Amino acid sequence: MAVARRSGRVTLEDVAAEAGVSRALASIVMRDAPGASAATRERVLATARELGYRPDVRARSLGGQKSKLIGVMFGVGVGTFHFDLLEGLYAAAAEHDHNLILSAVTPGRDEATALASLQDFRFDGLIMLGPPTEQPLLAGELPVVVVGWHVDHPRVDIVRTSDETAMAIAVEHLASLGHRRIAHLDGGETVIGVARRQAFVAAMTERGLAGTMRLVPGGQAQLDGQRAALRLLANEDDLPTALIAYNDDTAIAAMGVLAQQGISVPGDISVIGWDDSQLAMLSPVGLTSVRQEPGELARLAVERTIDRIKQRRIEDREIILEPELRLRQSTCPPPLGMS
C-alpha cells in the first residue's frame, strides 16, 4: 500500500515511524552505515522515497565544521561570458580546496526555486552570477557575493567591472573616430542592463552627444541581438554610424543581421561588443569589445566568499575592476558625410 505524503518538511522521525523502525536504525540506513539488514534497508529507503524525504545535510555539521562547499547560482541564455566565469570559479575553488554546487535560474525556474535545490547541501556561502537582483534572498543569512552588478544590501559583497568606466571608454573611442550618431543595443530591464544603459546616456551626454544618441531595446542572448538589429533597421533613413551592444553575443548577432541586409561592418556601421569573449576573437570581422577578466572576477569572488566564511576583517565590501577596450576590425571612422 502506498504511503501518503505528508505536508511540510518530512523528518527522519516520520520515515522511522512509517517504516516501523527506530530513529537510530533509520539513521543508519540513510547514512549507509553498517548495522541494518538488507530487508530493513529496502523498507526504510522505499518509505523515504514515498514520503519525499530529503536528508538535512546542514544538520550533519559537527562542532561548527565547515563543508567547504560554495553554492553558485547562474542564469541560462545570458551570454557566453558566464561560461568563462564558471570555469574560473571552478579553478579558484579548487585552488582553495573548496567545491562548488551549481543551480540554474531559467525562465521557468526562479531564484527561490534555484535556492531550494541548493538547500539540500550544507554550503557555506553563495556566489551569484545571476539573476542580477537588487535584493538576493539569502542576503544577511550567510555570505553572499554577487558578480557583475551593485547591490545596496550591507551584508552582500560585490565583485564587478565598472560599467560606467567601460561605457565612457567605448563612447570616447567612437567619438574620437568622428562618430556622433551612436546607438546602444541595451540588455533589457535587468539590473545590469539598466546600469549599462544609464552609463551610455551619461557618457553621450558628457561628450555633448545626447541629441544624436539612440537607445534600442534588446536583451542578453543572440536572439535578442537579432531582434534589436531588426528594430534598428526599421528606420533605414536614420541609421546610426556606430553601435555599442550589451554583450558580445548580441553584437555578433546584430552584425549577422546587418550583413544579411548588405550593411558593412565597419564600413557602414562600427560595432563594439562587451566582455571580449571567444566570440569577439573568432568573429569573421574581429569585434572591438570591452574587456572583462572572467578569471580574475572569479578568483576575487571565491576569495571574498571564503574570507566571509572565515569571518576575516574586510574593509570594503565592493571590489571594482577597471576595464579596457580591445580594438579589432569592427570599428573605423564613419563614412564621409555620415558622422
TrEMBL record:
Record-annotated HTH lacI-type domain positions: 10-64
SUPFAM superfamilies the record matches: lambda repressor-like DNA-binding domains (SSF47413), Periplasmic binding protein-like I (SSF53822)
PROSITE patterns according to UniProt: HTH_LACI_2
UniProt GO molecular function: DNA-binding transcription factor activity; transcription cis-regulatory region binding
Keyword Transcription in annotation: yes
Keyword set, alphabetical order: DNA-binding, Transcription, Transcription regulation
Protein name according to UniProt: LacI family transcriptional regulator
Species of origin: Microlunatus phosphovorus (strain ATCC 700054 / DSM 10555 / JCM 9379 / NBRC 101784 / NCIMB 13414 / VKM Ac-1990 / NM-1)
Upper taxonomic lineage: Bacteria, Bacillati, Actinomycetota, Actinomycetes, Propionibacteriales
